[in-house]
Design goal:
The chain is of the alpha+beta class. Helix 6 packs across helix 7.
């Protein structure tokens, strides 16, 4: 069972996300931003001042009770260091080899084992890079996501707001909520020219949609970068159903024969 979705968070606050009255618009922006930064754990949506302390304690409890105790992990410090590294590097590609070196672990096998343990209670998810060749897909770095943005606020070592990554993490969890599976139906993709699209959604052997996430596309350079990336990946993957999820931008962009729907997170 996942934390509240944005829609459920609005329901809790007595608002219908899909039928907002004009007088509710300002409040809806505040709620959307609150959810982005603090997540949707039911215990804290009613009392936001408790968010950081409650989720800080919950995170530690999951590490100690659901992981370390259950699997008889002797080196809990290493396990905790890995968890802290992952939550601070959410939405970034990671590999067991690099993590072993970075964190000074004894072996790559230990790192892989700890990563699996941290996924078991659905604290972290790892997204594979899409490739038609399974062997190459297994070798590539995976992107790490955390089950709720509130854990980022309470645990991650960060000197900035990271709104773009928070939005990407929120979209990822929404896709998991819709039944997409990180092993079979959801991936990220990097083109031959190193352009990236955040989410490749697959149905059977058919790629049904590409989803790019960009918090703010008001800067023309940012828009060009995001549009060029999704279009190039669309060409290589032969997909025409393209969407860019933003904080509150809504329009349609046409480029090189592709139509891209730009939608705000509330609509997505």
């Amino acid at each position: 069972m996942l934390p509240f979705s944005l829609e459920e968070f609005f329901d809790w606050n007595k608002l219908d996300l899909h039928m907002l009255k004009p007088e509710d618009i300002t409040n809806s922006f505040v709620l959307t931003d609150d959810y982005l930064r603090n997540g949707g754990y039911p215990e804290v949506v009613a009392s936001r001042q408790l968010t950081r302390s409650y989720l800080d304690t919950l995170f530690d409890s999951i590490i100690w009770k659901d992981v370390a105790k259950r699997h008889n992990v002797r080196n809990v410090t290493d396990l905790n260091n890995l968890a802290m590294y992952l939550v601070s590097n959410f939405c970034n590609p990671v590999s067991a080899n690099d993590l072993t070196t970075e964190l000074g672990f004894s072996s790559v096998n230990t790192t892989k084992k700890y990563m699996d343990y941290l996924h078991e209670p659905y604290l972290f998810y790892y997204l594979s890079r899409y490739n038609n060749k399974l062997k190459l897909m297994k070798k590539a770095s995976r992107k790490v996501y955390v089950v709720d943005n509130g854990f980022v606020a309470s645990k991650a070592f960060s000197l900035s707001d990271n709104l773009g990554r928070l939005l990407e993490n929120q979209v990822f969890i929404e896709l998991v909520r819709r039944g997409y599976d990180v092993e079979r139906t959801m991936f990220y993709y990097r083109s031959r020219n190193d352009k990236e699209v955040d989410f490749v959604l697959r149905k059977g052997a058919h790629i049904e949609r590409l989803v790019q996430v960009c918090y703010d596309m008001s800067n023309p350079k940012t828009e060009k970068r995001e549009v060029d990336s999704i279009v190039e990946c669309a060409g290589e993957l032969k997909c025409t159903n393209l969407v860019i999820v933003t904080n509150n931008d809504k329009r349609t962009i046409e480029k090189d024969g592709y139509k891209i729907d730009v939608v705000p997170i509330s609509e997505f």
